[in-house]
Amino acid sequence: MSDLQLTVEDLYVRFPTSRGTVEAVNGVTFTLEKGQMLGIVGESGSGKSVTAKTLMNLLPRTAEVDGNITFEGEDVRAVAKERRKHFWGVKMTMVFQDPMTSLNPVKRCGEQITETLRYHLGDTNATAKNKAVDLLEQVGVPEPSKRVDQYPHELSGGLRQRVVIAMALACEPSLLIADEPTTAVDVTVQKRLLDLLDGLRRDRGMSMILITHDLGVARGRCDDVAVMYGGRLVERAPTETLFADSRHPYTEALLRTIPRIDQPIHTRLEPIAGRPPELIDPAEECAFALRCRYAQPDCLEAIPPVGGVKGQHEFACFHPANTARGRQALDANLAAGQTVTGLQIQAAAGMN
Amino acid sequence: MAGTGHAPLRDDHNVLLTVRDLEVEFPVGRNEVVHAVSGISFDVAEGETLGIVGESGCGKSTVAKSIVRLNDIKSGSIDYQGNDLAQMGGETLRQIRPDVQMIFQDPISSLNPRRKIRDVISEGIAVWGNTKGSWSQERIEELMVAVGIDPKFGERRPHQFSGGQCQRIGIARALALDPKVLICDEPVSALDVSVQAQVLNILEDMKARYGLTLLFISHDLSVVKNVSDRIIVMYLGKFCEIGNADELYERPRHPYTRALLASIPEPAPTVDVSEGDIEGELPSPIHPPVGCRFNTRCQHATDICFTEEPVMQQVGDRDHYLACHHPVEVSVG
């Protein structure tokens, strides 16, 4: 096994609100090796962005964080005060979903990149500007020496996102966190941006965390994929294993619910019944139990711990799909026509 | 990338809606115009689902809005059961509006936050009285049940529902007046994948139950393929290719259609991934390229593409039309 770059252990993030405490992240544990590309997949409210923001120390002050985060041997949550301003944004950087909101509309693109260089590395204006032109060229911005003097509104969405990526790369980070970097752009632009990120990662030996709601994006680009649901990491495996042999019923349901281009037209989709879990005062049960075709009485008695093979294929489920135990649970539910939570189920085409 | 020409129009008694040479322009700045939609023609047969795909700025939403007359039309006709919607105004247009309803992308902002959802759904019926459908509580409840919203929640307001539920309420509202045509403008783009399937299934169910004809607009190629019988690919205000959904995805001929199919994260097997590498940026719709509008980014472009605009032509004898001087050869299987 190669070097561990990032270790997240038992991460909890809570936000006190007037309606109660939102339990956004609940005991997330994962590791990232040097040079690896990890995909974190989940729907809105699954806790994927909060996890990323915790790593980047970007949470609002009201957030209550607990757990250990180690990045290149250093405890991220205990960085000495005087080193803090040069810790984030240098070795660990982040790219956000909407490039227009991560760029300052009244500053030229070049200035936004040179600002980082001057602040963190103490570069002079001239060196920084030369580096900015270089960086823009590396991220595939045409006519970089002209673009440095342009304002964000003069660029297309795809080019803006390239400028943001250039900013993130300025201090040569070893870990880049990309939070839905292509959600706001069209498919042809998405392909070019993902090709770019993939290439940069290989050239620079960078590690990357790619946060996305799009399973297809994760499948095409990541070494490992982690699936989040209700603030928990419910499954993690090497990409092909996850897609071919998923264990968590939520992963399986997600894969079945998406229309696929290779299906015939008017293929009946299999929706996931119910709605996403409540994050305020969640019950002490599997968060997916109410929507799960496999649910059994024990799913309502405790939160399933993360099991499986550590570092290989981890999942948090008492009755995992594609196993004898899971099949038994599903068969029993199918025979009864409903699960223990009262969810009506029937055998669907292609289900086994 | 022309889309001019009437080749795709069918001479069939089943055709419900025919759009001819539709042109829409929006004024910008000093005496300049955005050429949003530039002379497109298509038709929709009764009971059919017609999908329109394309990237942002290609004019797909403008086409939808033009049909319900939410924006001004520069020229062209929209024939609906012998009436030209493009020429209508005032009371005659109002009389026809119940027949053509629309649902929108953002489910939450398309519902009035201050009204109970029962009132949101019933407003159309309240306006039309008993001339269309029967105005009764049962009708509202039937619609709510049909889209999977428990009628006991009728007194709630939109913020008490999730995005997927709001979209279903939007569908119920659109169906209240027994429309013939339902125009869906990116109806699932703002939804999470787990609720996207619920909404798509409900659209299919409603189509079967109420005999609807659907115009379905989306940027998501997989979603469009799932719901559509025929699909139009648009680029910069023009049509590239129109065809039967299976045919179009199995034998795409236009370089832009192929680029789209190669760009999606899990590319279609019929195209090579490298075909997705289209260079450059979308040209300005204020000064669109002369000739084929895709010429600035097309790997196959030659001189003729910069001077002459390709016209829609039928491919063989299939339900497949394209506008390209150099269509990609595909094996006919």
Q: Into how many domains do the coordinates of chain B divide?
A: 1
According to CATH, the homologous superfamily of chain B is P-loop containing nucleotide triphosphate hydrolases
Radius of gyration of chain A using CA atoms only = 22 Å
In the CATH hierarchy, what is the class of chain B? Alpha Beta
Structure description:
The complex is a heterodimer of chains A (352) and B (333). The longest helix of chain A has 18 residues, at 187-204. Chain A has helices at residues 48-55, 81-84, 99-102, 109-121, 125-138, 144-147, 157-169, 187-204, 215-221, 239-244, 249-257, 324-336, and strands at residues 4-17, 20-33, 37-41, 64-71, 74-75, 92-95, 175-179, 207-212, 224-229, 232-238, 307-309, 313-315. The mean pLDDT of chain A is 92. Chain A has 352 residues and is of the alpha/beta class. The relative contact order of chain A is 0.13. In chain A, the strands form 2 sheets. An 8-stranded mixed beta sheet of chain A has the order 6-7-8-3-9-10-12-11, with helices on both faces. Chain A has a domain at 249-272 and 282-336. In chain A, β9 (224-229) and β10 (232-238) form a beta hairpin. Helices cover 32% and strands 22% of the residues of chain A. Chain B is an alpha/beta fold. Chain B has one domain (15-107, 179-322): Rossmann fold (3-Layer(aba) Sandwich), CATH 3.40.50. Chain B is built from 10 helices and 12 strands. Chain B has helices at 60-67, 90-96, 117-128, 137-146, 163-175, 193-210, 221-227, 245-250, 255-263, 303-307; strands at 15-28, 32-45, 49-53, 75-80, 83-84, 100-103, 181-185, 213-218, 230-235, 238-244, 313-314, 320-322. In chain B, the strands form 2 sheets. In chain B, strands 6-7-8-3-9-10-12-11 form an 8-stranded mixed beta sheet, with helices on both faces. In chain B, β1 (15-28) and β2 form a beta hairpin. In chain B, α3 runs parallel beside α5 and α5 (163-175) runs parallel beside α6. The radius of gyration of chain B is 20 Å and the shape is globular. The relative contact order of chain B is 0.16. Chain A binds chain B through residues 43-44, 156, 158-159, 186-188, 190-192, 194, 213-217, 219-221, 253-254, 257-272, 275-276, and chain B through 55-56, 162, 164, 192-198, 200-201, 204, 219, 221-223, 225-229, 245-246, 249, 259-266, 268-269, 276-278, 281-282.
